[in-house]
Amino acid sequence: MRIEVFGIGCVKCKRLEKNVREALAKAGVDAEVVKVDDMTAIMDQGIMVTPALAIDGEVKFMGKVPSVEELIGMIKG
Amino acid sequence: MLDILLGGLESGIDGLIEYLSEHTLTCLIPAFFIAGAIAAFVKKEAILKYFGPQTKKFISYPVASVSGIVLAVCSCTILPLFAGIYKKGSGLGPAITFLFAGPGINILAIIYTAQVLGYDIGLARAVAAIGMSLIVGAIMGWMFRNERPQGEFKLLSSGEGKPRWVMFSFFLLLVLIMVVGAAKIEWVPKLAIIYVLTLLIAYLVIYHFEREEVTDWGLETWDLTKKIFPILLIGTFLVGVLAFFLPPETFRPYLGENTIPANLVAAFMGTILYMPTLLEVPIIGTTFGYSTGVMAAGPALSLLLAGPTVSAPSLVVLWRIMGWKRTVVYALLVVAASSLAGLIFGTMMG
Fold it and tell me: Which end of chain A is more exposed for a tag (fewer CB within 10 A), N or C?
């Protein structure tokens, strides 16, 4: 599984990354976490508001930081 | 030699004192807290729904012209939103309106301009940014009217927001603190009022916000301060030093009168030059001498409008997003609209 965290160094983006790592650890899932902070790469994905997250290339949400529990649901789902 | 160095240094320090004096800071600090709260609490996707491909144009244009105040606290958030609205949303016109108005109506910029350069030009900056952005957006939307959006952007819902009255009173209280802080009243009643307002905010924060949200607010405020303030500090100092070697009188022949060429020159410089957030204010006040009466009101507004909206680096990014034809048309329209607004304002100020 490949998880991409999109953000341009904003406060929420850092928290999202932290929550993602925590969720992975709790769910016991092994995944590659990639941080994308290049603005053109973010725009190419059609993301307009950061932070955003994509699992295996599919954008799951943007502009918010879900709780660790919600993230576990997304990772397992 | 030493005289020159000392003179330059003194001029730089004078600049710092002039631009970051006490009454400026009492206004700027609450403004940073407001901007931080906007970054932390405002649900941006809620506004994005007005930028869908199906949204009626008479809704998306006005929303685009004013939404910068909540969407565009930092200029780095403008370009992705612009690209999204252009390619997958309402199309080129509203996207351009948003791009033009965003930096002009950002709360920090308006407050700082009004405090340092005067309320008249601060207000003119906001009004002209909104008005001209609508005109420029509509012209571009019309010129390139045969384009269809490449798909529709997905709005990924973000769950429940707070009750409206909580957010409304929260922002209202923050704005009141800023206004009272800037008002010319005795410091005893002033502090008393601010104390009461702060207590009310504390009540809202304790009973209606999650702990994590409040932390976010603090972090966003600090993050903005960290990004903007050091550059403003150093920049203002350098602007002061520069004024010693290159007095504003140098520019009087070009920018001293409210003429069509002067406004065009100011708007053109603004389109090319990159100016870090808020630094446009000391550049106009000191380098070009608006504060000392050297620069006329018209060119000052032209530069204020064109400056933060585009710069050579941002034009390069725009080129990549929408191609050279639209970028060139946009740059020309920015120069035309900014100088026109400057000319009108300059005439009004006589």
Answer: C
A77 included as an active-site residue: no
**Domain residue ranges in chain B:** 2-162+209-349, 163-208
Q: Structural domain tally of chain A?
A: 1
Q: CA of B178, closest CA in chain A: separation in Å?
A: 24
Residue B224 forms contact with A (CB below 8 Å): no
Q: Quick check: A63 contacting B, CB < 8 Å?
A: yes
CA distance A29 to chain B (A): 24
CA–CA separation, B173 and B146 (whole Å)? 46
* Structure token digits, residue A13: 């983006």
Q: Does the beta carbon of B321 lie under 8 angstroms from any beta carbon of chain A?
A: yes
Within 8 A by CB and 6+ apart from A23, the residues are: A68, A71, A72, A75
pTM given for the model:
0.86
Q: What is the domain range of residue A55?
A: 2-76
pLDDT tens profile B313-322: 889 889 988 9
Q: Which residue is catalytic, options A1, A8, A10, A34? A: A10
pLDDT digits (tens, 9 = 90+) for B264-288: 999 999 999 988 888 999 999 999 9
Task: Please enumerate in sequence order all residues whose Cβ is within 8 A of that of B75, keeping only pairs 6 or more positions apart, or say none.
Answer: B102, B103, B277, B308
Q: What CATH number is given to the structural domain containing A66?
A: 3.40.30.10
Q: Which of A42, A59, A64 is closest, CB to CB, to B80?
A: A42
A13: annotated active-site residue = yes
Tens-digit pLDDT profile for residues B166-188: 989 999 999 999 888 877 788 88
